[in-house]
Amino acid sequence: MARILAVADEVVEQLWTDQVHQYAGVDLIVAAGDLPFDYLEHLANALDKPLVFVPGNHDADLSGYSNVRGLWTKAGVPVRWPGPTGAVNADERVVDVAGLRIAGLGGSIRYNKGPNQWTERQQARRARRVSRLAGWRRLRDGRGVDVLLTHSPPLDCGDEPDGPHRGFSCLHGLVTRLQPTFMLHGHIHPHGHARPDRSLGSTRVINVIPSKVLEVAR
């Protein structure tokens, strides 16, 4: 089993202190968006564990960056990557980290002109790309996706009725195709109310705000 520390949206102040070491036994940190990048770097450094994340709608625009042999570029020009140092950005990708296969899809429904916001059609196109990547990986080695990491939840599955917090309909189809053990998301703040886990087929859908520890077979 792999133990995951999943975080999203709300900083846990105690994790800035030595209390972070209560999670020393985890194998991996995953972040579902809208957290300060220095906070994520702190967690990864303090626990000395790999970090996989997807951006939220309040995060910086991380599109267009390339890393070749440790050199970050954008439009062919060397730049400093604004994301968390050493982390793996899983947005629109399928990555293998700590013995787990993780598919990622960041961002929220479009409600203004900010970064990491998508129309339903745009996100559906991105979801199809993730599905194709996962399919190619499965054909190559027979392994499926263990965790689908998103910022937003699926439509009518833990989202809210107001415009900025509606989920994506296309995520239902993506879960059906990938059949991950867990779908982990943020974006929907609990505001003091319990956010129960939900199920889409055999997949457990979990709002991880502000933090959850999970075990996944690998």
TrEMBL record:
Domain of life: Bacteria
Pfam family, one: Metallophos
Domain spans labelled Calcineurin-like phosphoesterase: 18-190
Official protein name in the record: Metallophosphoesterase
Taxonomic path: Bacteria, Bacillati, Actinomycetota, Actinomycetes, Pseudonocardiales
